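Q: Could you fold this chain for me?
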Amino acid sequence: MFGNKKLKDINTSDITQFLISLDCKPLTANKIKTVFHSIMKYAVTQKYISENPCCGAVWKENTERDYGKFDNVLNLQQARILISILQREYSVFNTIIELLLLTGMRSGECLGLRWSSIDFEDKTIFIDKTLSYSNNMWYLSSPKTMISTRTISIDDNAIKLLRKHQEEQNKQKKIVGLAWQQPEMVFTSCVGHWYDRSLLNSQFRRLIAKHKDELKLDHNLTIHGLRHTNAALLLYAGEDIENISAHLGHASSDITSRVYAHMYAEVKIRMAKTVSNALFNEN
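A: Sure. Below is the predicted structure, expressed as structure tokens.
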């Protein structure tokens, strides 16, 4: 799996693919991951590598446990209602939530966007940073895995959304002036500071609680559920699992298949019925 790779060249994606490929019980896979983590932790302390690539690596049971809660998703009708709620008025928060739903980005990736990350002409977003917090300070770090660094396409709706936000942000920058601390960032507080991820999660919980009846929501929905919703809509639209995996920045399409296994099964049943209907129904 690792071949002749040097220690410094082994990344989180490599370790994830290795752990997922193991033909063993989940408990055994977890023990192997623990050993790897200890080795890499020691390598960090000895300055052989700068960070532990085992952090963020996914193994089989971990995938099923952490990502298998599939009530954390909206159906198409609920997603449409949420979009209509968000579009009732402009706010930085509403813009973030709508963009998360449109793109399937992780919230940290979204808050780590700089204006230079967005190509309005080619309609793409380059994701290469995530907003992180440590030692009482916010900073931009590399994404979860190497594959998480990616370019995604966006449509005219997302372009319109971002153009509107840019216009409103420029107005606010003029008011705040030189005190605006993060001029390159797409999403900031009203005075130009980092947009607090904890605040974003709290705001989202309040939004869902307020509109739960309107959304006809009978389960809890976290902000990560917007990412699940984006993937579900792509699956039901017939997109290939490999393309969805690349779009989401998963370390492996095997992870995507496991995460959305129940949805994928439904899609395959529908595909089989489509062929059958085409062959045997004359009308």
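A (continued): The CA atoms of residues 9 and 49 lie 9 Å apart.
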